[in-house]
Amino acid sequence: GMGTLLISKIREEFPDRMMATFSVMPSPKVSDTVVEPYNATLSVHQLVENSDETFCIDNEALYDICFRTLKLQTPTYGDLNHLVSTVMSGITTCLRFPGQLNSDLRKLAVNMVPFPRLHFFMVGFAPLTARGSQQYRAVTVPELTQQMFDAKNMMAACDPRHGRYLTVAAYFRGKVSMKEVEENMLSVQNKNSNFFVEWSLTMFKLLIVTLHRVASR
Known about the structure:
The chain is of the alpha/beta class. The chain has one domain (about 1-10, about 20-210): 3-Layer(aba) Sandwich (Rossmann fold), CATH 3.40.50. It is built from 8 helices and 5 strands; from the N terminus they run αβαβααααβαβαβ. It has helices at about 1-15, 35-50, 60-70, 75-90, 95, 105-110, 140-150, 180-190, and strands at about 20-25, 55-60, 120, 170-175, 205-210. Strands 1-2-3 form a 3-stranded parallel beta sheet. Strand 1, helix 2 and strand 2 form a beta-alpha-beta unit. Helix 1 (about 1-15) runs parallel beside helix 2 (about 35-50) and helix 3 (about 60-70) packs across helix 4 (about 75-90). It is globular and about 45 Å long. The two termini are about 30 Å apart. One of its GO terms (molecular function) is GTPase activity. InterPro entries: Beta_tubulin, Tub_FtsZ_C, Tubulin, Tubulin/FtsZ-like_C, Tubulin/FtsZ_2-layer-sand-dom, Tubulin/FtsZ_GTPase_sf, Tubulin_FtsZ_GTPase.
C-alpha cells in the first residue's frame, strides 16, 4: 500500500536513519473490509526489510480494551485512535522530554532487537482511561508494573503467557523512584522466570520521565 511505499522510499533516501512504525492490524470486529487482510499480509515484507522498529497495534485488542476495560458500549474510531495516540505519545516521550537513563530510538533498538528481523514489538500501556474521563486516581509502581504485563492492557490481541519475552522496555512517567521501579521489575522477572528467555543479557531497559502526562480531553 501507500504506507509501505513511503517506507521504502524513505529508506532509500535516508538509509542511516532509524525507522519506527506504528502498524495497525485489521480485525473483523471493527471492520469488514475485504481487502484489509491482504493489505496487512502484503505489507509485512516491507516492514521486515525496511523498518527498524515496528510497534504492533491490533484493532481487535483496541476494541476489547474499549469495551471491557473502559466500559464503552459502542466504541468509535475516535476511541480507538485515542488509545493509539496515547501509546505513540508514551513511546516517544523519551525523544521529547528529559529523564533518567534517557533513550532514543537507536538505543531502544540496541536493547530490544536481539536479531535484525525480530523488531516487532508488543505494546502494553497503563493506566488506561477513557476519553474525557473526569475520574483519576493515583496508581503505585507495583500496580503499573502489574498492569503493563497484563494481557488486557496489551495493544495486540495476543496473550503473552503463551510465549516468552525476549526483551522488555519499561517507560514510566511522573515522580517515581528508580529504586522502586528496579525492584518491581526484578520481582516480575523472578516470579515469572518461565516467561523470560535465559540468554538475554539486556532483558530490561528502564526509563523514567519525570514530566507528568497531561490528561487528554
